[in-house]
Amino acid sequence: MSSATPAIRNATPQDAAEIARLSAQLGYPASPETFAARLQKLLESPRHAVLVAAEGTRLSGFVATEQRMSLELGERVEIVALVVDAGARRTGVGKALVAAAEQWAIDIGTPDVFLRSNILRQESHPFYESLGYTRTKTQHAYTKPL
Which tens digits make up the pLDDT trace of 114-128? Predict the structure, then answer.
């Protein structure tokens, strides 16, 4: 990967296979077709943004955001996914993607950005803190198949 910060742009349907490749690096494997279907739904939603760091047709990372409204906290944007290619980590790609997500939040008039980081991803916690994010809580996540 290049050491220069890649161009950040909105994702397109053609990015699905690269997003699938990157997601698999963090333990979220699925077929390119599955990612294509998910990506299409997100691209159609004004409450979501998927931004990619592109070097030609190859992606060095992506960030996915969601504008949320909750009764107790009001409106804010959540960074729901941030993945940087293993070969592009510590080159400024992650920082550029987070900055782009924050700019999207500003552009849509949302006052706060938050994110969740798996407790097992120890290397990501200092990264987020270096960007001004403050740890506000630790929680458990539960899933129930229906």
Answer: 998 887 787 888 888
